[in-house]
Amino acid sequence: MFTRRAAMMGAALVAASPFVVSRASASGEVMTTAGAGDVDLSGLERIKPELKKPPFVMDHDQVAVGGPKIVEFEMQIVEKEVEIDDGVYLQAMTYNGSMPGPLMVVHEGDYLELTLYNSPENSLQHNIDFHASTGALGGGSLTLINPGEKVTLRFKATRPGSFIYHCAPGGAMIPWHVVSGMSGAVLVLPREGLKDHNDQPVSYDKVYFIGENDFYIPKDEDGEYMRFEDPLDGYSDMVDVMQGLIPSHVTFNGKVGALTGDGALTAKVGEKVLFIHAQANRDSRPHLIGGHGDLVWELGKFNNKPDIDLETWFIRGGSAGCALYEFRQPGVYAYVNHNLIEAVNLGATGHVVVEGEWNNDLMEQVLEPTEYDAMHEGKTALP
Ligand SMILES: [Cu+2]
Q1: For the segment 13-59, what is each residue's pLDDT rounded down to a tens digit?
Q2: Active-site residue 182, yes or no?
């Protein structure tokens, strides 16, 4: 069911400050870096890796090969309706059409150079704020583009870790664009690769990028989730739900069940899997049911030593953390946000299907479920 909010209302929102900001700063100047001293990067190698749709991650070296590079990426901003649960729709705003946007991987000291396209079919201004970068609101002041415009930003990756990127086009647009899907992450690996808690090199066999989204889908008078024609059509109803701070859905990778069934993650016994968990807006607490975090960079920052043997870790809203786990038993593991209401009722559950040989030393069912004689064994409910 579409709600027919007047298109005029959308037009009014576009025209009214602060819903859409201009590129001008408070002083009235449009921010640019032209005129600052030139940087000669002509000697650096340029590479252009292919981004992959999460939970998959672009091919990359864990230990840097050669010196710093300029790593070029392109992302297309896509506004489109997405079914975030069966029969529940969001007028999503996305980087490259996915929620989360793709994980970009570089090494410390590399330059990340992104060309961002805002398609003429889109209706809104967008930009990108890289938490991995330094200056200009994370690049947000230099990347604000209208539909039909593109922009290229380069920044030096000076700090190793996993970092959020998200849209931040100003004022009330910021939270709305973020909870409409516009976030992703950058992984800045140390040039020599990851180190464990004893400073020993550690590598991973697989890496998965899990983006957690809190969604705020309004309901109509009949209690049915509302469906809208375009982002602005749903704006005011969505803000009403957002102000209550209680999401209607909390999902991994854009849809309830995106990482279960056919979308389940896979691994083998003995494989080390790096899970990168991003939440751009709200706190989370990842937990791998039946497993652990062997090494957890809870803050996602590799100059800090990882914690070991964690059961559940914390992801602050506006950050991305990393957990490395070597699977020791086969079976289906649930990867959840361990607020179990959010995991089970709101959607924040994924599965990891692990193949291999069961190890009875680690766990064995010593007695299968069996009837017992309460009178004879004296095991009644009241001891
Ligand atoms: Cu945006």
Answers
A1: 443 334 444 565 555 667 888 888 889 999 999 999 999 999 999 99
A2: yes
d(CA 296, CA 306): 5
262 is catalytic: no
Compute the distance from residue 341 Cα to the ligand 1 centre, in Å.
29
* CATH code, domain with 101: 2.60.40.420
Q: Is 311 a catalytic residue?
A: yes
Q: How many residues does the chain have?
A: 383
270-302 CB burial, b ≥16 within 10 A, e <16: ebbbbbbbbbbbbebbbbbebbbbbbbbbbbbb
* Candidate list 287, 292, 298, 349, residue with the active-site label: 287
Residue of 107, 177, 249, 292 marked catalytic:
177
Task: Show the domain range for 124.
Answer: 9-19+45-190
Specify if 25 maps to a domain.
Answer: no
Catalytic site residue from 45, 192, 311, 355: 311
Chain mean position to CA 156: 21
CA distance 306 to 136: 30
Work out the average pLDDT over 301-329. Answer: 98
Rounded to the nearest angstrom, the distance between the alpha carbon of 127 and the centre of ligand 1 is 6
Do the Cβ atoms of 353 and 332 come closer than 8 Å? Answer: yes
* pLDDT tens per residue, range 275-292: 999 999 999 999 999 999
Instruction: Decide if 94 is catalytic.
Output: no
Distance CA 240, CA 197 (A): 45
> CA 42, 45, 49 angle in degrees (round to 5)?
130
Q: Of 137, 159, 190, which marks where a domain is finished?
A: 190
Distance (angstroms) between ligand 1 centre and the Cα of 335 equals: 29
137-161 residue pLDDT tens? 999 999 999 999 999 999 999 999 9
Does 368 participate in catalysis according to the annotation?
no
Tokens standing for 257?
Answer: 């069940």
CA distances in angstroms from 199 to 150, 162, 306, listed in the order given: 42, 19, 10
State the total domains in the chain: 2
Between the CA of 205 and the centroid of ligand 1 the distance, in Å, is 34
